Amino acid sequence: MAVTTTKPKHAPRRHIAVIPCRWGASRFPGKPLAMLGDKPLLWHVYQRCREAQRLDDAVVATDDRRIEAVCQQLGIPCTMTGTHATGTDRVAECAEHLQADGYINVQGDEPFIDPAAIDAVSEAVVHLDAAVPVVNAYTHIADTAAAIDHNVVKVVISADNNALLFSRQPIPYPRGDHPAYFRQLGLYGFTAAGLEIFRKLDQGPLERTEGVEMLRFIEHSHSVRMLPVMDTGLAVDTPEDLVRARSLLQRTRSRP
Prior knowledge:
Layout: E1 15-21, E2 35-36, E3 39-40, H1 41-51, E4 57-62, H2 65-74, E5 78-80, H3 87-95, E6 102-106, H4 115-126, E7 134-141, H5 144-148, E8 154-157, E9 163-167, E10 181-190, H6 192-200, H7 205-210, H8 215-219, E11 224-228, H9 239-254
Parallel strand pairs: 1-4, 1-6, 4-5, 7-11
Antiparallel strand pairs: 2-3, 6-10, 7-10, 8-9
C-alpha cells in the first residue's frame, strides 16, 4: 500500500514515525492485532503518532499480510518489508523508500506512549552530533516490580547522557548504594545516516543474548544518546500486560 503524505508541519524538516510490527513475537504471537478496546494494538500506537505535533507522517512496517490487511481496513499507511531480526532493521529498510530527515521508531507495543515524548525525540534528532547515530528515550523506574521484570529493559547512563549498557536484568546491582533504575522506552530517533550505520553492523553477542537492539551500537563503539521523557504508559509485552492495558484504557476513558 502506498504511503500517504500530509502537509509538513515544520518544513523543510521532514520526520516520519515508523511503527515496526511483526506477527511472530515469542512471548505474544499476533500481538499487533490483539484487541485493546474495540481496536487492535497497532491502531492505538498509530493514533499516538498522529497526536504528535512534530511528525509529518506515520506508517506501519511489517512483513505479515494479516497485519497489512488490517491496516488497509483501518486506513493506516502500511509498507511491506522483508523479514528482519529487529524492528530497527525493518525501519532501516523503510528508510530506503521513504525519504526523510529523521525517522522515529515507535514500537508497536506502546499503545499509551505520550505524543509529547515522540515530539521530544524528534526534536532531539535535529540536534544530534554528527558522531551520534541515535537518540533513545527513557524514564525513571519507580516500581520495584518493574526493576526486576525481565520484560522491562533497563539502561545505565553516563555523565554525558550516553548509554553505557542495556539489560533485562536490574542494573546496576545495589551492593553499596540505593541506585536509580531507568527504563528504556521503545522509542528511538535516527537520521538516515544513523540507520545506515545500524544496518551495516553485525549483531553482537550481547544483542543476541539480551534481545536489545540498541546494544548493537554499543558493541560496535557507537554512542546511543539517552533522552529523559515523562511517560507513564504501559508497554504490552505479554498477554498479562494486555489485561492490564485494557484496565488502564477503561480508567482513561472514564475520566471526566
